[in-house]
Design a protein that fits this description.
The protein has about 750 residues and is of the alpha+beta class. About 20% of the residues lie in helices and about 25% in strands. Its cofactor is Fe(2+).
Amino acid sequence: MDGGEENNVKAVRRSKEEKKVLRKQIKTSHTLLKHEGINTTPQPNKSLVVANGGLGNGVSREELSAALKEMGEVESLMMPPHKPYAFVTYRSEESARKALVHLNGHKLQCGDNGVTLYLGYVNSVNCEEEKAAPLPEGLVLVEDFVSPEEEALLLAAIDWSSTNDDVTAQKALKHRRVKHYGFEFRYDNNNVDKDNPLPAGLPEECLPVLERCVRNGHINIMPDQLTINQYESGQGIPPHVDTHSAFEDTILSLSLGAKTVMEFRHPDGRLVPVVLPGQSLLVMKGESRYLWTHGITPRKFDMVPVCDPQSSANSESDIRSNSNLTLSKRGTRTSFTFRKIRHDPCRCAFPSTCDSRGALSTPSPSPPTAPSLPCCHADAARLEEVYVHRVYDAIASHFSSTRHSPWPRVCHFLSSLPPGSVLADVGCGNGKYLGVNPEVIAVGSDRSSALVQICAERGFQAFVSDALSVPLRTASCDACISIAVIHHFSTQERRLAAVRELVRLLNPGGRALIYVWAFEQEHNKQRSKYLKGQNIGQPGNLSPVNSPAEDRQEPCVEDGDKSVDSMQDVSKVTDGKLSVHTNRTAFNTQDLLVPWHLKEGKKRGEEESKKDGKQNKRKETSRKTPGDFCSPSSLSSKPKSDSNSASSPGSDPNMSSGSGPDTSDATHAPDSEPSLSGDTTQTSSSPLKPESESGPAPVFHRYYHVFQQGELEQMCGHVAGVKVQSSYHDQGNWCLILEKA
């Protein structure tokens, strides 16, 4: 829809509204080309792109198809997952022309929301169908496992009316209702009290179902523990692995009521969404039970395959191939998760996630078994999964409450970008930099689904992604920022790969700003705010009285030249093991674990956020830039699963912060902005209690590689096609700006 597009419509006198639609039609065409690589054409044909009419905009296939079919016979309709546009091909060119004339600028009502469609001709429809990802090893989905009559009987057996039920250990958690039978699952220690069974065993109504499971070979021993979770629309459970030491291998999850999508994630980042229809049975064994996290993202709509009675393809294969998808509104879902209590230590083949080997522990001042520096790619991925990704998903809400004031020098970089520039914040955290410059088109990505959810609640465009593989087109960005991210990668190769990925995203002439935590916390005879906080509170559990260090910044001093050859040899760790750093002290090694003390004050902040959330969201939304299809749509957090908990470890986030030095183990400071997300989960080194429970605050341990002076420049020197425009020291961080040739 370039200038010649106007010739497609007969030159007649247009009304003011028609002129407005034409302007927006042309603008959307330019936006699609710039950000999605979709080239419209003035030449009429049978194929059209429908901007704003995609799954990523909340438009279902049925709603869009109905509007399109009014214009003529549709040959094909392609709706790429998460994208805010669709492609339609009509049987005749005349039908396509009719659609362009009548649907361009048409407001389509989708549930409670309306979207305005803008159409344009395209010469070809290129939407590659992805190959179906295999289910995790050991995972089996059995549809229609129980009859409608059995489903009704099981649901009727649950008595939710009790408010204080010690017999079934009923809990009212933040995101769902829970009942335990046989044994109570304890969210304070992520385990069960095996010597204290509940008075009530499993409900009699469950026995026929379990006997059928044994007969059919889904499990070889009768379960003795049941957790029932009830989810309303929009609720979910964070990603987690069921505690190894608590339960035997096989876990059965029976889905009753509305269907939902459960997401399984491997430590290497692979994601497999699985549709769980009502009356279906999910069987988790082996690798799928011990290694992959599973969770349900809290949202009101899921992407699911279109129901086709003529198709023999099953649900989970269709969704995994991204073929023929639509949106499904969630309803109330109740899950029955059956497990067998384990009485001996777990001897599984997955020590990296096994708490019997010290991988998943209860809160402690230091990890029970200090991890070693990785010696290969697989070891590095496992270390980062346990000591970075899961930690940030667990502390996301508290972390966000301490990250509210953008750093001046980062703001200066963002403000220097010309209007209309495309900015990618890789590792955006809670999105505090996404709204700094309202004249740019900003999109964020982060490994932490919980932090991405906070971005979405604040009205920002963000999606879940690994910094080593960002799903944006090459040379699609005018600028990138990576603030407090690269220091979480545990090998030199992976840190270098993260820089190369930033450079890949840049246009020629584009710039990237990188911040990493510095080994030198005292520079040019000036101590960083991080060290200046060392006299506040108690050693190892320090709590700034005011805002965290990064939010009390003073003017920074440009660093002088220092030869890379003069770097100290501090990279070695004792006996190959990572040490736990004492907060607010100078570093004595470059690779270490930094504690984060989850403070009770966070809960108060969450309560405050409930009344302030709407106001903050309106404020942030008002700063967003226009452009409905500039970036992938926001993905919400990936909560915990049916099985364990409100507290099991979660699956994602290398991209820890969207802010300056990601250093604080700060409490929720009195003047801190309250978190906009109430979702909290547990991590590998420390489970997190639900709000109704009390006890010592959990301690989490995050992996860091702190950079020596000159190290960041030296590393970036290995990246082809870029030059270091400038470098400096900013309050305990080494920073540089790269420019792509």
